[in-house]
Amino acid sequence: MSSDHSVPVAASPGAPPAPIDEVEASRAPLMDHLIELRSRLVKCSIAVVVLGLLGFFFSQYILDILLEPFSLAAHRAGRDASQAYFTAPLELLFLKLKLAMLIGIAGAFPYIAWHIWRFVAPGLYKNERGAVAPFIIAIPFLFAAGGAVVYFVLLPLVMGFAFGQEFTGESTKVTYLPKVAEYYSLAIALFTAFGMAFQLPVVLALLAKAEIISSATLRKGRKYAVVAIFAVAMVMTPPDVFSQTVLALPVYGLYEASIFCAWMIERDRRKREAAEAKAEAKEAAREAAKGPPRDAGTM
After folding, report:
1. What's the rounded Cα separation, in Å, for the pair 299 and 296?
2. How far apart are CA 129 and CA 147, in angstroms?
3. Which among 64, 159, 204, 218 could disulfide-bond with 258, CB atoms 3.0 to 4.6 Å apart, if both were Cys?
4. How much is the pTM?
């Protein structure tokens, strides 16, 4: 094990410090790990339940916020934005419960991520902890960025497209009858799709960090990435070209950003390896300058 992953401890008075492996120093019995895991799972579950209850208390207010893009699209179409319907007696209640559960999970995510980090960090070396931590921090921000694209761009456009399909024929007027549950399901599906898709830089950067992929591989795979991104967009968005394009274009931009991140990681790795090689060469030259060890039996 290299000295970068070790910390010195004194073997005996007057003796030079002996290196000890960081991971070995943090080793614990399996039962201790299971007890710690159970404790952290319980704490995370409590956080989800507490925030879910708070979410249910504010669910009507949050639902009203989620309906804002619908209202804007309805106003642009000349419709009464106050009219949205539910057709089953308990439909709205179940809708609020589902919303509360998602609020609990989303709200507790930073706390859950912190517990995951605290659980796995002792098994990582110091330089590995420093390398992984920025990616964990980036996950909620990238998810929020994907949600912002949905809320401020995609939902108003999708609803505007829906209202734009209305027409009046010779004998019949065809109008869009919005249902709260269907609109909510669409919004949550889009939030989930965009939030997960915006994690692409984190996934690819971690793979590059582990030397599983390289920036050259990503550059060569651009044409395949475009096909894959549009294929995933077809599955994760409503069945219209516009929604698929709105998802695919930002994700492809993130793919290009991932290539840049992988290149930066490779550049830093090359610099670190060059510095280590230089230090080893200096050490070898210093040892060579000392000359061969003298025989203890010679005078």
Report:
1. 8
2. 28
3. 204
4. 0.70
